[in-house]
Design a protein that fits this description.
heterodimer; A: mainly alpha; Arc Repressor Mutant, subunit A; three-stranded antiparallel β-sheet; 4 strands; 12% strand; B: 293 residues; mainly alpha; three-stranded mixed β-sheet; 11 helices
Chain lengths: 136, 293
């Protein structure tokens, strides 16, 4: 790919995901490119091939899966937004190997044990007491 | 030959001994920036000394003779091996990091809830904040050219406005100052050191120093108390099963540094920068000595 995906493409991917999630919510089965285009593409005046590209990208990102249906592909999300969010956060919070996670993401806070939380609270109380007291 | 021995000793001391001593000097955490520079210079000097030891053998044994050529060749091969190991480590760490980050960024971009950011709780002028619909209160950032600050809805619900501002300022400081590059550089050098010699405490200390820097940036934006409170709010919001039993959390150390409001003396910082430069000069001086005869 020569150019970085534009924010518009990102917005479109989100819209397609929303549509696929709505379909699943309504009990509709996997969608063809044509069906996605008729809803998401038509209101944005987009070409059929653009939607094909978006669905292909989403498949490669692992959030959409496709199955053959005659000569066409049918696309469906691999999970609901809640499921995918939980999976993403699991990666961030401990699913990935600790080394990868530590290096790839910078967390506000590492895991804290119950003892550490008690110590933290005590330290905060001391800090607040010191700051509330008039300077000696 | 004396120079070669000195280079090897310097490499061993800087890679094996110095990190263990330095990691215990917690007083330097009050000067996080010079402390980080010292850490980088010490590890860089260790690598330079180790790499230079091979080439430094060559002038020491200059002269005719088959045996000398073999020794010189072996020494050079050893250095070349170390250099390759270093480059390979850098390549592997770098590609792995960027792959994990890109994949994760694509997911949070897809799953993030723009409406929450727009609801006025978060000011997101540069469009880097993503809110995930999840009850676990947490905040982290994905560094890189297209950096992201990720918050959960749980975090938005449990953090009052001033603490949220503190958390955002902390994460934005990481992104803006490219703390990830500091960590990446150090991680690469760290992994290039043989496992029996490297010190895990050193890496942990550098990670803590980066957090202290971001905390200070957050204090400048939001004040001390909100930063301190946010540490507690996010620490206690974690589900117990997600918490690791073993300690090693840095939150308490950061809290104590927040409480110790007084800044370190200027002279101490100057001394630390001076030390960093001096450490870096040692292998260079030794190499110069090796080739000047």
């Amino acid at each position: 790919m020569a150019t970085a995906p534009t924010p518009r493409l990102g917005e479109l991917e989100r819209a397609v995901m929303e549509h696929l999630w709505t379909r699943t919510g309504n009990g509709d089965g996997p969608a063809t490119v044509r069906e996605v285009h008729d809803v998401v593409g038509a209101e944005r005046d987009l070409a059929y091939t653009t939607l094909m590209t978006v669905l292909d990208r989403l498949t490669r990102k692992g959030v959409v899966e496709r199955e053959r249906d005659g000569r066409a592909w049918r696309y469906a999300p691999v999970g609901s937004r809640e499921q995918l969010t939980a999976r993403t956060l699991r990666d961030a919070l401990g699913g990935l190997a600790a080394d990868d996670r530590r290096a790839a993401m910078v967390h506000f806070l590492d895991e804290a044990s119950a003892d550490e939380i008690a110590d933290l609270r005590a330290a905060l109380a001391a800090l607040e007491a010191r700051r509330d007291a008039p300077p000696a | 030959m004396l120079v070669v021995a000195a280079l090897v000793l310097v490499a061993l001391a800087l890679a094996g001994v110095a990190p263990r001593v330095m990691a215990r000097r917690t007083g330097f955490r009050r000067s996080p920036r010079p402390a980080l520079v010292v850490w980088q210079c010490v590890s860089l000097a260790a690598v330079l000394a180790a790499l230079a030891a091979g080439p430094a053998v060559v002038p020491a044994i200059a002269g005719p003779g088959h045996g000398r050529a073999v020794v010189g060749g072996l020494a050079l091969a050893l250095s070349a091996g170390m250099l390759l190991r270093l480059l390979w480590s850098g390549h592997r760490v770098g590609t792995r990091l960027r792959a994990v980050r890109r994949e994760h960024r694509e997911l949070v971009d897809l799953l993030g809830l723009p409406e929450d950011v727009g609801a006025g709780q978060v000011t997101d002028r540069d469009g880097t904040v993503r809110v995930l619909a999840h009850p676990t209160p947490t905040a982290y950032c994905l560094p890189g050219l297209r950096g992201r600050v990720v918050l959960t809805r749980g975090a938005l619900e449990s953090l009052p406005q001033d603490q949220l501002a503190a958390v955002l300022a902390h994460e934005r400081a990481h992104l803006r100052a490219r703390h990830d590059l500091v960590l990446e550089f150090f991680t690469v050098l760290h992994r290039a050191v043989p496992p029996w010699l490297r010190s895990g405490a050193a890496l942990a200390e550098v990670q803590l120093l980066v957090e202290v820097l971001a905390d200070r940036a957050a204090v400048r934006v939001a004040g001390v108390t909100p930063v301190a409170r946010a540490l507690v709010t996010l620490a206690q919001g974690r589900h117990p099963e997600a918490a690791m039993a073993a300690g090693g959390g840095t939150a308490l150390a950061r809290m104590e540094l927040l409480a110790a409001a007084e800044r370190s003396a200027r002279w101490l910082s100057a001394l630390m920068y001076g030390f960093a430069v001096a450490v870096l000069a040692v292998p260079l001086a030794l190499v110069a000595a090796a080739f000047s005869r």
